[in-house]
Amino acid sequence: MSGTICCWNLQHYEKVGDLSSAKKLFADIPERDVVACNAMISALGMHGYVKEVRELFDQMREKTSSSWNTMISCYCKLGDVESARMIFDSNPVKNVISWNAMIDGYSENAKPTIETTVSLLSACAHLGALDMGYWIHGYIRRQKLKADVYLGNAFVDNASPDRE
Questions:
Q1: d(C-alpha 1, C-alpha 23), whole Å
Q2: What is the pTM of this model?
Q3: C-alpha to C-alpha distances, 70 to 8, 13, 87, 141, 162, nearest whole angstrom
Q4: pLDDT score recorded for residue 150
Q5: Can you tell me the mean pLDDT for 96-104?
Q6: Burial class (CB within 10 angstroms; exposed 0-12, middle 13-18, buried 19+) of 30
Q7: CATH T-level assignment (fold) for domain 3-109
Q8: Which of 120, 79, 73, 125 is nearest to 99 (CA)?
Q9: In principle, which of 66, 75, 132, 156 could form an S-S bond with 80, CB 3.0–4.6 Å?
Q10: Is residue 86's pLDDT more than 90?
């Protein structure tokens, strides 16, 4: 069976929740390439098999950016942002997908701080995204985050009509 068909089957088994068939298929692959390993890491990670995911990742001789990003995404989806960050920090070649996976992981698993909202408002101001700035202001009010001088300045900066 070709590597492409094996990977497709692994993904199929993962989607229907048949991890025992996915594990058997993976075990029967005579020469596991990086694509097959990444597919299995993804399948196991989606179902919470953290120990097995990590063991497989650590056994891989060749790791591509996709391998690293799959691990980051798996840990984030499981709510383990600390482990995701350790993998991210160890990743020798971080790309936009790596960064997005970490940002997504933090956004899904952590409540934004005042510092985060100040940074977001500043970005909105520089982009001219006034509507997004107002949305963030509403979020801060709904979450009852305590405003400080930095946040107040970010509000003023975001709403200033003199932005260029």
A1: 16
A2: 0.66
A3: 16, 18, 10, 35, 43
A4: 64
A5: 91
A6: exposed
A7: 1.25.40
A8: 73
A9: 75
A10: yes
Does the pLDDT at position 90 exceed 60? yes
Strand (E) or helix (H) holding 36: helix 34-46
Share above pLDDT 90 across residues of the chain, in percent, rounded to a whole number: 32
Q: Where are the domains of the chain?
A: 3-109, 114-159
Amino acid symbol at 121: L
Q: Give the span between the Cα atoms of 125 and 137, in whole angstroms.
A: 13
117 and 142 Cβ atoms separated by less than 8 Å: no
Characterize 62-81 residue by residue with b for buried, 16 or more Cβ atoms within 10 angstroms of its Cβ, and e for exposed. Answer: ebeebbbbbbbbbbbbbebb
